[in-house]
Design goal:
With about 350 residues, this protein is an all-alpha fold. Helix content is about 75%, strand content about 5%. It contains 16 helices and four strands. The two termini are about 25 Å apart.
Length: about 350
């Protein structure tokens, strides 16, 4: 595997990145708001996919690291309003927690690893709920300042405008995606995939699987932490339900399944599909009330947007068993194979 994109893929990626940078200039506030949400959850999903899709470790503790990053960043910003310090502090706190949890849980693979990480997530949830003096309990931490981006002696950019903060999230997201791209196509990434496919054979070949799995667990957790800090700066509050609720892990799992397990960009596609569907489908309620005002049956159907969402997910599972991106990639590979000359 060369790790290089084809010329066509390179052009498409460049155009997409350019479109993202131009988005605040050509779109309103709500598309920018939605793009921030997609970027945060997309990179969160990519970090989760590194564990689940590339290493074969199903972790239910990623929301815990997301929350550690969110709370750590929030506490620092409430004390010292500095953007870089807040994000770096959250990453440092969650990095230590990820390393300790990895040492304790990575040796136990499959269901045992999943249960240990689930226990960790529930422990963090309990701490966030009960340690009111530090976390604010169920009320959470509010009034978190969106600190300016400062480079001493050079520049100070206010983050009060959502468009300015959008570029911070965009740059951090692109950096995380590039780092993940380099990782999964490096010898380390190939080794993780070998461990996923056959851990015993990888051990027989001399690879210390524990070390590689610990590295993947720590890196994926750090990615979740960075985006947890970005989430805190975005919404300017954090509580147990917003940072640690079960819906977050279910959303991430759905994004990976929809986009494609074991595909680098599956989380991005899944996040775009999921969040766009959640935005568009409830709008059918207003459309149904307007267009189908004379039909009581159709108007009721338009109000049940969750039904449409469930049908959409079922269709993806049936017609895109390896996710949207994974299925399209397999179809392209089959076409290339069919077009190859016989030996």
């Amino acid at each position: 595997m060369t790790g290089r994109l084809s010329p066509r893929a390179t052009i498409l990626v460049a155009l997409l990145v350019l479109a993202l940078f131009l988005l605040p200039w050509v779109a309103g506030k709500y598309p920018v708001y939605l793009a921030i949400q997609i970027l945060i959850l997309a990179v969160f999903s990519i970090g989760f996919n590194l564990l689940f899709g590339y290493t074969g470790l199903l972790s239910f503790g990623q929301a815990g690291f997301f929350a550690v990053g969110a709370y750590g960043c929030a506490k620092i910003l409430l004390a010292v309003p500095n953007l870089f310090l807040g994000i770096a502090g959250g990453v440092a706190a969650a990095g230590v927690a990820a390393f300790i949890l990895g040492i304790l849980s990575v040796r136990h693979t499959r269901i045992y690893f999943s249960m240990l990480t689930l226990a960790f997530g529930m422990m963090i949830y309990s701490i966030a709920w009960k340690w009111r003096d530090y976390t604010g309990g169920d009320d959470g931490l509010v009034g978190i300042p969106r600190a300016p981006l400062e480079i001493p002696g050079l520049v100070s950019i206010s983050m009060a405008a959502m468009e300015h903060y959008y570029y911070v999230v965009l740059v951090l997201s692109l950096a995380a995606i590039l780092a993940m791209y380099r990782l999964v196509r490096s010898p380390l990434g190939l080794t993780l995939q070998a461990i996923r496919d056959n851990e015993l054979r990888a051990e027989a070949l001399g690879y210390r699987t524990f070390v590689f799995q610990l590295a993947a667990s720590s890196f994926g957790s750090v990615v979740a932490t960075v985006l947890g800090g970005c989430y805190t700066l975005w919404v300017r509050y954090v509580n147990p339900e917003s940072a640690l609720g079960i819906p977050i892990m279910l959303d991430v799992l759905l994004m990976v399944i929809i986009g494609g397990i074991g595909t680098l960009y599956g989380g991005i596609v899944g996040a775009a599909v999921l969040l766009t569907a959640r935005t568009v489908l409830p709008g059918l309620r207003g459309l149904g009330a307007t267009v189908f005002s004379g039909s009581e049956i159709l108007q009721r159907l338009s109000e049940r947007w969750l039904l449409y969402f469930g049908i959409l997910f079922i269709l993806v599972v049936f017609f895109f068993p390896r996710g949207v991106l994974g299925t399209l990639r397999e179809a392209a590979a089959r076409r290339r194979g069919a077009g190859a000359p016989e030996a």
